[in-house]
Amino acid sequence: METVLRSKSMNSKVGRDMVYYFHLHTELVLSAEQLLLAREQGINVSIDKEIIEKLTKFHGLEKSIGKAGMKALRPHLHFSHKELWEVHLLDDESHHHH
């Protein structure tokens, strides 16, 4: 990821957005895992306002980073298919709470 962020031609705002995207993605994966673990234990947990706000920021960052930036960033994220699915699960459930 450092290589992506060191590019001299890259806009510094896009670089900051990429770092924030990475952190937010990690937070969302952890939130999804907590939600799934609670449900496995029979605890009825729903998506809260904070997660919905993070998902909104997350999607906004994808747009501001742009297709080329996201293509450059994705190989450096190192998230498993399961973790990507977990974020997708949060996203789907957040739309049911609007």
- Helical segment count: 4
**Cα-atom Rg, whole angstroms?**
15 Å
Backbone structural class: mainly alpha
Instruction: Return the average pLDDT rounded to an integer.
Output: 84
**How many extended strands?**
0
Q: In percent, how much strand structure appears in the residues?
A: under 5%
Sketch the major β-sheet: none
> Topology as H/E string?
HHHH
Percent helix among the residues?
over 70%
What is the distance, rounded to the nearest whole angstrom, between the alpha carbons of the first and last residues? 34 Å
Global morphology: elongated
Q: Which segments are poorly predicted (pLDDT under 50) over 5 or more consecutive residues?
A: none
Number of domains: 1
Brief descriptors of the model:
single chain; 98 residues; mainly alpha; elongated
How would you characterize this protein structure?
The chain has helices at 2-6, 12-40, 49-73, 81-96. It is built from four helices and no strands. α2 (12-40) packs across α3 (49-73) and α2 (12-40) crosses α4 (81-96). The model has no long low-confidence stretch (mean pLDDT 84). It has 98 residues and is mostly helical. 77% of the residues lie in helices and 0% in strands. The chain is elongated, with a radius of gyration of 15 Å. It has one domain (2-96).
